[in-house]
Design brief:
The protein has 171 residues and is an alpha+beta fold. It has 2 domains: 53 residues, Thrombin, subunit H; 108 residues, CarD-like, C-terminal domain (Methane Monooxygenase Hydroxylase, Chain G, domain 1, Up-down Bundle). Helices cover 50% and strands 20% of the residues. It contains 6 helices and 5 strands, in the order βββββαααααα. β2 and β3 form a beta hairpin. α2 runs parallel beside α4, α3 packs parallel to α6 and α4 packs across α5.
Length: 171
């Protein structure tokens, strides 16, 4: 069970804060809901307490897990790229990973798209997924590591500076 004021992560929305827990009657039955305000866009979500884990609501990762994410972004040995996959299949796969709520999956999408951008210009859809992944990863890591989100973005961009320099040269 999550507590009031606790930071939580909602899949594909990002970090939010549990503002309150309230009961509502629905179809003659009383149900409890977490009222979660997403910090990046001020959206308020009602998440059933009984199904919170089923929908992927989870606590923000701890500092050690955050550092492991940085290490996984540095490791390029698992990069598969886009060989043999068309964009639609990759887009669906990446979208599913972003919706999973698993920070490791979201970081994987971020890394893949940065590295794909090394070899070709990203499409509009790919750039949008890259921005979404960057936002989700950087926000959670900023809370986990107690750093400003912009600092986290700068550090991630520095990890892929070779990729970004190549893209700028081609522009």
């Amino acid at each position: 069970m999550f507590e009031l004021e606790q930071l939580v992560v909602y899949p594909s929305q990002g970090v939010g804060k549990v503002e309150r827990i309230e009961s509502q009657e629905i179809g003659g039955a009383t149900a409890e809901f977490y009222i979660v305000r997403i910090l990046s866009n001020n959206v308020t979500l009602m998440v059933p307490v009984m199904n919170a884990h089923n929908v992927g609501l989870r606590s923000v990762c701890d500092k050690d897990a955050g550092m492991q994410i940085f290490e996984s972004l540095k490791d390029r040995s698992d990069f598969t790229g886009y060989t043999g996959q068309n964009w639609n299949r990759r887009y669906r796969e990446y979208s599913e990973k972003l919706k999973s709520g698993d920070l490791q999956d979201v970081a994987y999408v971020l890394k893949e798209l940065f590295l794909i951008g090394r070899d070709k210009e990203l499409s509009f859809g790919e750039r949008r997924l890259l921005e979404q992944a960057m936002g989700l990863v950087s926000m959670e890591l900023s809370f986990a590591l107690d750093l400003d989100q912009e600092e986290i973005k700068e550090e991630i961009n520095a990890l892929f500076s070779d990729v970004m320099e190549k893209q700028e040269e081609e522009s």
